[in-house]
Amino acid sequence: MVNRNNKSNQSGRNNQKRASSKPFFTLAALLFAALVGLGFFRFSAAQLEYRLSSIERSIERYTAEEVELKQSLSGLTSPIRIYSYCKDRLGMHTAKQEIVHIPRILRAGAVEPEPQKGWHSSMFAFFGFKVN
User: Fold this and answer.
1) Has this prediction a pTM greater than 0.70?
2) Is 77 exposed, middle or buried (0-12, 13-18, 19+ CB in 10 A)?
3) For an engineered disulfide with 121, which of 51, 69, 101, 117 has Cβ 3.0 to 4.6 Å away?
4) pLDDT tens for each residue of 108-128
């Protein structure tokens, strides 16, 4: 009986060793897969960060170019620049401003029209009333 007990104890120990090694390898495989997955996510995050920084650099470059173009446009459309261009290259000069008076000549029998007083007067005139 001792032999049978011994054999059954040894076989029980072998089964325990085999059963305990399976979860270890499974856990090790899952841990390795998790590390590989995390590494992949880290790599993709770094790649996205690089693309984002390159987009931000291009935005800054285009913003600086826009400011430069606005400055050159304002220099081209300034009144002093236009005046000097017309004077120097086109030979234009400013004329002296003169006030011209046109006398009103009234004909005999002509009645000068009464000035309108806005839309109220035309509306009341439609109904035959006069507005002072």
Assistant:
1) no
2) exposed
3) 117
4) 666 666 665 666 566 666 666
- pLDDT at residue 15 greater than cutoff 90: no
For residue range 60-119, what is the model confidence (pLDDT) as tens digits?
999 999 999 999 988 888 888 888 888 888 888 777 778 877 777 766 666 666 665 666
Distance (Å, whole) CA 90 – CA 87? 6
Amino acid found at 80: I
Three-state SS sequence of the chain? CHHHHHHHHHHHHHHHHHHHHHHHHHHHHHHHHHHHHHHHHHHHHHHHHHHHHHHHHHHHHHHHHHHHHHHHHHHHCCHHHHHHHHHHCCCCCCCCCCCCCCCCCCCCCCCCCCCCCCHHHHHHHHCCCCCC
Phi, psi angles (nearest 5°) of residue 59? -65, -45
State how far the Cα of 2 lies from the Cα of 13, in Å rounded to an integer: 16
Contacts of 112 (CB under 8 A, 6+ apart): 106
Q: Which residues contact 92 (CB under 8 A, 6 or more apart)?
A: 86
